[in-house]
## 1
Amino acid sequence: MISILLLNYWVAMILIALGIFIVISKSNLIKKIVGLGIFQTAVYLLYISPGKIIGGTPPILAASFSTYSNPLPHVLILTAIVVGVATSALGLSIIIRIKEDFGTIEEDEIENLLSKEKKIVCLFLLVKFLH
Amino acid sequence: MENNLLLRIISKLLIPFIALFAFYVQFHGDFGPGGGFQAGVILAAAIILYSLIFGIKKSQTLITIRFLKLSMCFGLILYCITGFFGIFSGSNFLDYNTLNSNHIFAQELGIFIVELGVGICVFSVMLLIFYLFVSRGKK
Amino acid sequence: MSFFISQIPALIVSVPLFCAPLCTISNHKFFSWLIALLATFFCFVCSIFLFFNIHENMVISYAMGQWLAPWGIEFRIDKLNSFFILIVSFFALYACFFGLRSLKNDIEQSKISLFWTSYLLCITGLLGVLITGDAFNIFVFLEISSLATYIIIGLGRDKKALYASFQYLILGTMGATFIVIAIGLLYVTTGTLNLFDLSFRVKNIFDNPALITAIAFLFVGISLKAAIFPLHTWLPNAYSYSPNVTTIFLSATATKVAIYLFFRFGYDIFGPSDIISTLSIGKIIIFLSLLAILFGSIAAYKQSNIKKMFAYSSVAQIGFITLGIGLMNSSALTGSISYMFAHALTKGTIFVLIATLIFSLKDIDIKSISGLVKTQPLIAFLFLISLLSLIGFPGTVGFISKWYLILGALQYKNILVIVIVAISSLLTIAYVWKISKLIFLSEPIKQNFNIPITMKFSCILGSVLIITFGIFPGFLINNANEISSILMSR
């Protein structure tokens, strides 16, 4: 019974590692948002797993039960879920604007475009200076 | 998708029930799973289903973007007014006991009003995000 | 009146929250600015009341909804808090006042009311982080302020602002999620979320591996938000490409709030002797701070975009502040707290001056401020004052804080720390000299440009405050000393 409960924590840690890896390694901006979502979902699992009391019922007051599971982690996770949704929505709207302005949503192509602009500006200044 | 008979009829049957379920989740939030955020999302999902099938123009004639911006602000202001009511009555911010003399009823009333504010705000924000994302592609 | 004062902890957070949707409803360029100005002015007045009502070890505790701590959420204000609240609300007012003229050039006209809405939400979040006494509430307010920050950064005209905002979003959300993991582990090991209660419960269970994991996640998460050396990569882009009002506001407040979390968790709750020396977190912080000082100053020297140069300079100065945290003696802590105030004032004034010049000249290349002493001597003089404060010249506010930090480094008795602290001033002089040469010794490129009166007034106000706190440092140093003695006595 105890080892089955520990499975939650193993899964949470593996998902945290996977989520961070996706954010770091993938260059597509939408995949980064997906990785962030996986990371945050693993954190919700990490919060709720200790909230379950062995032998406890769902936390609604009733006369025939005396042991209840802890309701506080559930409340905290509701708040964290809302924050995660807002962050994903904001990230996706920024990606839409990036696609309109840059034409691409691959991180390495955007970096190329930015450094090309820098090179053009430097060349321009160099030419002006030499004149 | 309006020409698809199956989609049109099933959605017209289902959308009222989805909206009813959203109101159920809203009002039973302090006794079962639910609350303002979940209810707002479910109600927004009902309207989004309608706009997916019947088109954005039809759903925007019913719920305009200007109405959504106003109701989003109204939800947050409702929450803050509940909080300030506690201060105006001489107690702390968000003190529900000042809303009514009966202690239990005051707590339930306070939770009801703030969840209503949260639900209205979340519904408007979700629907507004959908409208703004969809209208972007047409430019 | 005293009832009003007793309700200030709730009002200082809820009034900007209430005024933010009013800005959206009004949908008008001038009235949304006016609502933002009135809200930030109200917050500043409240923070003055709070600051001057707290004496010595006094703590104001405000129970939200009359649910008493430790079951309810309480807002807990002591000397450490009230000092930071004063700084944040003053700079919110300062940047908001400056923003009336400056914002018209920086973002599209239709979005100005939305900018002020996000600005007020950002202030709500930052003041909420500073004032709350509940651990999860810190995360909620931190995320409110972070989301609003991503918006006000991304509204800049340059399309690079969008990419900078996205980068900050990814890194900031990861930092906040690390903080959430830490708070969850703290709750699981101690059973409470109230910060005051937490400080009692962690003292007995100190070798619990879950607690040590929580501390590790907490410090990495806070370092991401505070832009400490290897995790600072979002800061230069976010400061350079955002609208000028955002840069002024963020450079003075956002990282300071994260460093406040360092103070609160590292010194107040966990106790310096437990964490900072036993777990060697102090040594790690000192090492990273030294790297930050070196790297930030060298990178600042090589920049050609003037806003990016001062953004990298901010990275170096934040390294200075965290050096004081890691050194863990009372003079270093005094230096760190007063340097936070000095840096906010100095960087705020520098970015106000740069924003004034960008507004008048419409250019951000470093060459365009050449010969400023001949075309606009007043602005050149004010620039000189703020650059001297950045170096730490005696007579400006930067000097007295650096003095205490050097005293703290001498007490720590490690030769490397002392050498790098001494070199840091030289490195700062290197890039400050680069700017000063352009301002004072070059020929002017652009000749006739006018500077609006309100912007001149903001610049003069900032520089006057720098000189005032430099010549009469008593107020600053007394408060910093009191705070550091409170923190070191845990």
## 2
Amino acid sequence: MDDDVDLDLIRAFRIEDAAPPAGLRERIEEELWEVVLAEESRVRSGGRARAPRRHWLSGLMRPAIATGVTAMLAVGIAVMSNGAPVDGTSVRAGESGSANVTTSNVLDATATSLFGSNAAAAASAPPVAATFNATEDDMSGATAPSGRQLPAIAAGPGTTAEESATLAARLPRSPQQLLEQLHSAAGDIADGDASDRVAFRLAMRWIVNPTVPINVRANMLRSLDGLAGIDQALRGADVLGRPGIVVGHIDERTGVREQYVLSAEGGLLLERRAFMAGYVDPACPPGTFTDHALFSDGQQIDPAQVQWVDWPAVVNACDPATR
Amino acid sequence: MVTTTPHNGPPGGPDDEPTDADLIGRSIDDPRAFMPLVERHHRVLFGYLARRVGRDIAEDVTSETFARAFAQRARYDRARLDARPWLFGIATNLLRNHARSEGRQLRAYSRHGVQDRTHDDDAAVDARVDAKAQSQVLAGALEQLKAGDREALLMFAWNDMSYEDIAASLDIPVGTVRSRLNRARKIVKAHLAEHGVDAEPDLDTLTGGGPTARKAHHGR
């Protein structure tokens, strides 16, 4: 007998069973995310954690909030809310969100903790376009340079809850998988640093759209944590003082920081703002706003009609992208 | 002796990916850092488990292995760059809860042979009959082995693991691995000879001719 015939036979034994089934990795990662989030939940609630740890989602918030607040102060915005100034105490970075994440489906529960319990109301609100300008945002019919149709994540959500749910079902649930798809799709549209900004905007189209299932929006929000230039704050506020989650991205090339404020109740878009956060162009000093919009119930509102808000910022007076 | 090629080379080079040990270390403070380990190791882990206890149980055990590993990551010895032996150790412990399933399956295979799902044509019928007969005999041999001997032998044969890695996985000395392998192989060879299996197996038939078929010759 050949010396290794036993090993050769063993190597061939049941080898047809060895190939993993489709989607196994995603399922494992999804379950692992639940474990990860459950651990973080225990940490937040002062459970069995050995030492206090920063929540990974809130860990990136401090610089963003600090920059946002500084920028507002720099342009001399005097924001009044019911006659009272919104001071720094209304925007505390690093605070965790709800600690009541104890259900078996931690992903969905965390979506609730991220966006509050008003998901149903959010879903019935009109869709909000996460646009900064039409040219850059209108990617729904775009094709990659190679001629391939853009993947679902780049095509964006639909306009109805049913349509968006169908489209969202094509996306992975794991934030890491979502981020990989965002990177891939953005890489087909833009190169280098610009692709990070495209990835951010692709994700924001899902995140701010209330027709998208709330767990998908929450997972998408979490996926941004791994994107270069991202800042997030679980406890922020818009210029009207409305509390919410702030998610932003800085474009190192132009020095422009884009930020979105999402309501704590349902994750509705409250404010979209873009301002200079770096000394890239002397004509556009830090703090100069390049874009700003306020929303209520999914509809854009005219700041001029909000009588109790003094809004001296001159938007679009400076556009570093065109200089 | 077989030496495994570590999944990760030594750290330090500019193009090096982080080692498993790096990732596990980072994951203490940043749990997300643990995720790439799934991509790196789930295939080989699932393959090993599926061949031992079937695909359904293997899915659950693979998933549970990563969950346990995550929970135990603070205790990981980061001097070990490759986490595979550690993961296999966890999986092996979990698998002991399914020892009966493995025994039942081996008994079933020894009676009926491994179901060939790779060929539907008639061309290889004779070869398939031979392969089925061989798999029946082999299943009978594996069933005879003590659990510890079988674990060492299957890790060695299916995963190309070194004696050292098997020892780390099973938490036993390297010398014990050596003796378990010798004992297991003697029993299997004797069983095969007793049933007239002394020819080279037709691996193409057994595996569908895929690239996974290998005639590796390990030193002893």
## 3
Amino acid sequence: MKYYTYFPGCSSSEGGAKAYGRSAQIVSQVLDVELVELDDWNCCGSTPYSSVDELSSFCLSARNLSLAEKRGFDLVTPCSSCYVMLNRTKSYLKEYPKVKANVEEALAAGGLQYNGTVKARHLLDIFVNDIDYDIIRTKIERNLKGLKVASYYGCQIVRPRFGLDHPEYPESLDKLVASLGSDPVPFPLKSRCCGGSIIISDEDVALDLIKKLLDSAVSNGAECLVTVCPLCQTNLDAYQSSVNKKFKTSFNIPILFFTQLMGIAFGLSDDDLLLKTCIVPVERVLAKYP
Amino acid sequence: MEKKRRANTFVEEISDIPGGEGVRLCIQCGTCTASCPNADRMEHTPAQLIAMVRADMRNEVLSSNAMWYCLSCYLCTVRCPRGIKQTDLMHALECLASREHLSSGRTRTPTLYRSFSDFVYSLGSLSEVGFMAWFYMLTNPLRALRMLPVALALLRHGRLSIKARRLTPEGTKQLEAILDKAESLGGVS
């Protein structure tokens, strides 16, 4: 059994991507990974907070890091944005004494301190580096051979460089998809941005970006797409009909969390994986792989 | 919070902000602009913004819509041949513009980011429904109608939770103390 402190982030906790949190937990159990949720964690602030008040945004992550430090395990999040906020905070604390002094003073006002010892990691990193593809292969219960999958990384899991995979041509998720028995398709835009941070304020701009991604996946033969980020999933899934309306297209490609695809391959039930929360239905595609 | 202005020129001011120091290193090659998925929406491209900072065009830079179209995808940052943290520079400009109430009115993104942050500040956790309702109220309630089909689809699939997750009372108090102190320290610069 491997132990980690788990930071779900708002979206994968009780928010719009709770299927991500649920499937992450259940797939982890299959792989003997124990994710223990961090007590009383707060929102990471994401891109918006760091665009309005950067010091406060570092403090949001520093509180979570400080709470995690007391437990002593690596801090794992399934959300690419939380992953970047935690790691940016860590690197700024290390690189800029001025930031460190301010953050320490703010933390002290809440009776906390942080000594810089926590590793902040993405869930994908745990599965592909701590568990390994070979172990994952041994857990397969359902034959997905022939299922064509676009592995979508999005931006923040690989950029800026926090050490997990290549910033522009990542492969770890493709390898994971292959180890599940399914077939990763070439996907040139796999690490391009989905426009998640402005989907609410500037929908039209974001829809252009989403359309390019869907085009790139579908034209390469993908039957479904997997994501590693709650915002990417929501964007590509919930806004697919808006894209179709705007561009008179007929995309109908299911968007799964990578943990859901793992769960499907491991033979877990649709209910366990909350597959019904996918807005573009996934049943039609999966029916070919009983 | 009154701004501590110690720098004489805008380029000095930006260089003093952690993450902004790279502004002096730019060779205007335009790799950031060519990499940016949203450069075509910006009144000034990423490379232009840097040139304008160095030309001391403080007001023009801070009231530009450009940085608000930055998606924080960090493609410019990993490609910059001079190692400039271009995305962080965008954040620094956004923070400065917010603090001085100069944020562009030609994009709704500053208002969105502000409503998001206000919610996180007061709840410690994000309620998606709550912050969106607040945002539409601040901008144009009629635009919420356009969002309705997406919201209904999310609701039908059990993905819109009305109830927000809350921290414990002690956690809430602790976070508030930390954030109030951070605000009193007045930004990172």
## 4
Amino acid sequence: MHRGGRSARARSGRTMVRRLLALAGSGALLLASPAAAQDSPPDFSGFWGPVFNLGEPAADMVARLPENTVVIADTGVAEFPRGEYGGLILTPEALAHAEQWRPESELAIDRVCLPQSIVYALQGPFPFEIHQTPTLIVIRYEYFDQVRLVHMDGREHPAEAPDTKMGYSTGRWDGSDLVIETSHIAASTITNNGLDHSNRIRTTERYRIDPADGRLVATQWFSDSATITNNGARWIEWERRPGQYVYPYECDPSFALEYEGR
Amino acid sequence: MAGRIIAAALLVGLCGAASGPSLAHHSFAVYFSPEREVTVAGTISAFRFTNPHGLVVVEVTEADGTVHSWRAETNAPVVLQRRGWTRTSLRAGQQVTLSGWQARDGSRYMRLREARDAQGRQVGAGAFGQNDG
């Protein structure tokens, strides 16, 4: 597919997204949450694998995204080519950084096994396991063997905590939706094509098991005024795969030697 | 849900933007040419089954008798394992035919689509595409 054609469609899609979000922000698209209060939250436990044939985003979840948000379309194996950011508006500093980015530098032996942050890793084509308790949810990602703790005990985010690629997450139930807020995320990439985020980025994820097909669906919203002047979001889906397990990733940096001198 | 009809229209736009070459751990499009398909046959001299990508090295004898090493980068072994590959799927000394997409720089380096043994049997369950994880 020619890049020009894809860019045209991308612009068309972005325009549509912006219009929808503007409607959502103005209150014209008020949709009832499907989740009434429940006696107990749904059980998200299990092995979840990425879905590449995405279904329809739940309109009420999209409508809940804050104003000035663009839904970017790089979920799964697709990624934006160099210079394309899916409607995210970069600060001059972030744009200059992206333009100077050299993809081969990511394949240096000292970098090839550095995991990306949850901002990028969440949408990638790898599975994870969820282990759920009333006060703590543990998410074990296959991608780079990363583990994430989601505190469900009502605690606040700490003022001081080390920045990590998974960040510091707290969660709450909103009916049958799981809403996760994450801070203290170490600087990393947003789109894996030169657009990086700072450690001031904040994310809000809303997860739901789609009653129609049992898929786990989510909106991932992020804001980082140091690098983007609007906000970004993604629509992501996974399917439950009983009996499967996360495999060890155990990244081996010697792979980078294949790229030295290329 | 009425709202989901609107969301469907939204997704159509998104899918148009999203379609394109596969990029997972590092960029397929940056390093490999989707139009430049290559097939080589030879003797395996090395097989590395490590993330983020595996690697097969094959010694290929050209028509004039010269021998060149070809390297084939695989998808992540965590992906290969779910398609029936193991650390011992290929062994040094084994005759094999590899096909895939050649590196953009024209070097003897490819992204593996499939491997077949001397009897023509495909290794693992199914070939890999440009849009595989």
